[in-house]
Records
---
Amino acid sequence: MNQKYVYNLLKILLLTTVFSINNLFAQRTPVAGSIQTYNNGISWGTNAQRLSDDKIIVYYKNASSGSTGDGFAVVGTISGSTISWGSALELVTDNIIYAKIVTLSSEKVLFVYEENATPDVYKYKMLTISGTTITASSSAQLSNTAYDIGWQRSLQMVALTENQVVIAMEANIATDSLKVFTGTVSGNTISWGNEVNVASNVSNVSLVRMSDMKFAMGYEWNDGAISGEGMLVAGTVNSNAITMGTPQSFESTSIIGTIGLTSLTESSLAVIFEDDGGTDEGRLFYATLSGTTFTIPGSETNFYSGKSIEDLSMTTLSSTEVVVGINGQSTTTSHYFTASLLGNNFTLGAETELISGNADEFQVVSINADKFVGVFIDDDNVNGVTDERGDVKVFTLTSTTNPEINIQGNSTDIVSGDSSPSTSDYTDFGTGASLSKTFTIQNTGSGTLTLGSNAVSISGTNASDFSVSTQPATSVSGSSSTTFTIDFASGVASTRTAVLHINNDDIHEYNYHFSIQAVGASASVPIVTTTTASNISTTSATIGGNVTSDGGDTVSERGVVYAITSTNNNPTIGGIGVTKDDNASGIGAFSESITGLAASTQYSYAAYAINNQGTSYGTVKMLITSALSVDDEFLQKSINVYPNPVVDELYIDIESSIEVEDVKVYDVSGKLLRTLTLINKKINFSNVYSGLYFIKVRTNQGSLTKIIVKK
């Protein structure tokens, strides 16, 4: 075999392998819906955020009808590829210089803005969402520092949790100093921490959440030695304090234009940027994050080479797929494409034109793994519509093997971020000293949903009143479900509130959370009823009860008590002549079959239940055992037991035709004490304690039970 043949064979094998690997990946193509208009007027400064699996919120400046740039927000409900819009709320009546929104939960959005009346001073409002209705809080200053923004890309915000937000902005226009700080949300107010200086001579900032306590930043750094260098840096948050890692360069040979980051997992992200150094092309690469150190294991993938890029937008569909939106210059159309991670590099789908003509301020926002929206302005009246009209398109993709979390209570969906507890979905537990509710975690996707151990946690004002009694499974396969149970215990007769958190790897709802509440109550003894006796015979009957309430405390024991009425007509545990027969624990109906009764005898009986607060009894009822049968009467006449009461020896006289097989002795609770053999027509009772006993004489012609009193 010559060397050339071996070389060609290896070449064929290599090409075949590459072909096989590439064919493992099938690029998805988004299908665009029709244009959905949110503002049929001049719109600009748009910013959109996902609220939930079927809702988005869009902020925009309305420059029509004399509004002169007033700020508005509107919520849209997505159904298929269409959106129904609620009523837009005017947030600020003064001309807005710049503003942004960030979603804290499905019901709360932070709005930060700079207005014409107070330039260089940032303010914020908290927006509360109910359905498609928006309510805005009063405004408050972001902090005591006046901020300058070099341009709009210098203000970035990200929510780490529903109660923690991080903001990055250019704080001094002279030095382009990049500041970052965090705030803790409580209701409609935010407590801000101290600013941290990241770098000077900075522009084109991007900010992304990595975990509940970590974020990543990308920015263009103009330090004098290298102009337009691309940098990455990570920060960790503890309460309101930020600790920054060491900035790392990812591009030092090109001039960085716009930049964007999106997280894929808690330890990986996609980075996109514009090479503005002559080629005017976009570049995309994959990076990992360990602690605050970045690693770039693959190569940059180039796109849109030689075309005009004004801005870039990127959103995550799954841990291996992103969508990129390209905002062309004022004379250039805008495009979008998907990119999938294969190994350590991205493979790009086809670039598709958003609309015929220019679309400005193009932003892509993922809704779930199979759907995203493109928010844009129909610029320059190119489509014969209102100039600068605010539009949206909904894009759908074929389903993939990704997880999709949904949580239900009482078979009713609970949206992540729900802050209005209801009895209909079990988020309102009701009233009681001890309550319990079970919730279902559904995986409506086809990929495995990972929850991990102890996935459910509790926070909030009265978190200590609630506990997780049963954690869900650590993972849920596609189209399957698991459950978890929350217990409530409180003697405080007022509304107690908390928030449930469900950690999972659904990239769009990684911190599924919702509010719960219950009203406590003082615990009391259980409530129990006595049921009517059944199956009554000469020596046995079935009696029982029903524990209808545990009184707010766990029922540790339940059962029945009974006695011969002439001895004790109000039987209680430990009473004279009383037999106790216990039946497990907890609430609910129960019954017991009691034996060893005397024929033709009236008994008093009642159900009981015990918890830590005490013992309660149901109504006392009566039963009368059946009369003896003919055979019983024969034995009654043929067997004579004496003396009664007895001290030492008990005699049993029988007719010669009857043979005694054995004699059993029971206490009043029906417990068998001993089995005796009749010797010389007598049994020894001298070593038996004083009290009431039953003896059962078993013969070849039946059995006879007698009540014996031992002195």
---
Amino acid sequence: MSLPTELIESSCNQSSTYFISRANLNFPCANYTLPLSSAQKEAFDLAISNSPISLISGNPASGKTHVGCFVLEMSVRFQKSILVVARHANTLEAYKNLNVNSLFLEIFNNYSDSIFAWLRHNLAQPKINFMPLHLFPDPLLETLQESKQLNQWIDLAEKGDKKNLQEEMMKVFPQVSKSRLDLLVEKLYKLYPLLKQHQKLKEHYLNLSEEGILQLTELMSETTKIPILATFQSVLNSDVKFKQFEIVLVEDSHLFSDHDLLLMASMTNKLILLGENIKSDTFFTRLSECLSPAYRANLSENFRLHPLLSRPIFSTFYYSQPYSSLQNYSYRTFQNRLRWIDIHEDKLITPQLLDFIENSDIDISSIKVGILTFSITAKEMIQSQCPEQWLNQIYVDSCENWYGKECNVLLIVCDGTKPTPDQLRLALTRASDAIVCFGDINQYEMSSFRTLIRDKTLTIEREVSLL
């Protein structure tokens, strides 16, 4: 039984259990030049500690994924195997966008085959450009290393012909100052033995037979520590669930059942759970109450929603009201940030929504505008009627595909389809500046919307007016 599994079972039987047993990550002390708030630093410290479980809770936009991204980068830097799991593929976009070579495990793909294919792909384009650790990165030198003329410049440096080397560099970088080129020439002169070795290694590799590349790939697949990104469905459908990782990080843990989280706990001795403390009886919420405070951290800041949006939304769906600072963020001015355009005929919703975009002072070329629907039918109707040039600037999709997305202004289509509490929480926390709902408000008075509909900050309008 893994350490996280033991700790979960013990904590559920007896609250605030503390384990002496520890994971063996042994990360060095965190570098606090990281762009994290003080609360995020505490959460990050907990995440990279040797405790078997690190549970980090917080409202949407509190920076949980931001902390998770730094954990992934830290694990790569210190060569720790890590699996990042989410319920929805879009949630993993932030991790995919990092400057880290990770593998996204597709649904129905075998884990071992995916690793093998990933290695084959990367070995086909070898990057042999390592430099001494004491040198700062030099983009000019990196450009030279990728050039086909590098051997010619190495020969000039080896002969000590700095004059011709200087002239060659002026041809390659005509816009760069002479003093900067002098520095580059001096660096080439000192590093040419290493660059020569790089070229020989590339030659040897490119001359490898297909059998040799296959053998190299097989050897590396047994020891590689590629960061793996996967949806939970991908984990269930592949042999990855039988593998062991040094770290398993779970995004949106509040969306998983106790059986799901225990499966992921069995795959590691270090489990990191990121999730929301929602007003609902989820296993994540119960676990956050049972675990010892030594294994928990709470993020109580809001880095996205304007305070006039966050107050009614968070007080409706979450236990606490996060701190929102107007000083750190540049919010746009809107007369009403939370609005409902009351339209009693469903067939008029799309025309009125498009008319609203055209006639309001929302500039879709300068701010991010999104349209969210609770049904596929509504999404397809909007996409079919929306001008083609708008579709390139406005993100239109159904609720399930809005995980991991955000925008400045969100237009929500309420065509009578009743959203689940999870869908509604997601929809109302995607926008930073303003939310406008379109549809028959009477159809939603007995739905999950009811508390928000009764809130005094919601402006209800029959006519479309300018923001």
---
Amino acid sequence: MSKPRVFFDININGKPSGRMILELRPDIVPKTAENFRALCTGEKGLGKGGRPLHYKGSKFHRVIPGFMLQGGDFTRGNGTGGESIFGEKFDDENFDLRHTAPGILSMANAGPGTNGSQFFGLDVMEMIESKGSQSGKPSAEITISDCGQLLE
């Protein structure tokens, strides 16, 4: 099974700041990987709330240096919203992968069966991390200016 790769082009305070490339694991979490991939491409159209099911234009609402970046709330932008391509939320698939090194991507949720569109991970983007704080509130607006799937 191939591992799709997706990208986020990042703006910090409106200025292009780099690209994040993420590899998804449909071999381990097929539903989660498809949800993330489709939210990167925006191919599923509008969600139940009438907003595009797309990460493009959404913000990183939580940045804690040395720990994580969290984003994906394209409905409210503050960590209290988000939606999956399967409806508002979907069930957990498994917990086989662990955060053993920088760059591991995970879905953020509020407990069992509450996966939507929010995600977190520690990535190579030190400039994003430098805009974080211990409380998690970014000191700059960090936006996904574009996103999609990289085709091999």
---
Amino acid sequence: MLLWSRQSRIFVWVVFAVAVVVIFLAPIATVALAGFAGQWTGPLPSQLGFERFEKALGGDDLASLAVSLQTALVASAFALVLGAWAALSVREVPPWFRRVIDAVFHLPIAIPSVAIGLGLLMAFNERPFLVGGTKWIVILAHTALVLAFAFSSVTAALERLDPAYRQVAESLGAGPGRVLLKVTLPLLMPSLGAAAGLAIALSMGELGATVMVYPATWRTLPVTIFGLSDRGQVFSAAASTTLLLLLTLLALLVVGRIRGKAAVR
């Protein structure tokens, strides 16, 4: 072991705990606390209340929250279907072609999301592929950004999958479609659940590409939060951010529960 003494291990754990608190927990706690603040001129906020949250749960903010959830669910579903289909399709291709496909699917996360948004806006702004100015261009942008994670998750799961399952099913007379539906997909459900959770979390917080393409009728909550912060309404932005965090965690819990049931089956 690199750390021989008990004191050294304790020191490392303390440093790690402090880093987690300072880098991760403290900013989240500060944002949540700011959502209750009427003003913050000293070490701690004052005039605490629920006014900011009441406003965030009504009007345009609530509509943006619903838009974010719908976008995340639809984009994640598209990404799972496309990612799983691509991963299953490239299993039998030559290794060099598989590497090319892998690079193509990971390209959207290797370049700035703003570039993705601008590219989609320019590519789909003319007929017959006119989706600019509609909700579908936002969903398309989110799908492109989370597709790589679905593809990677299913690809990794397929590499770990014992081919004996498929071989036994085929020896019993099952066709390719039945093997896929009755053997392969059930075994992939835990990985698909993990990919869905990650895709939803990433989509719920996506801003860079969204701010380039969103129409006024389909504004996600991160865009609304950015607008509030830009106008100096940081406490309202903090309340909306807290709700976004809670909704994302709730969605992850639901996906995790579904994933757990699928794994048991």
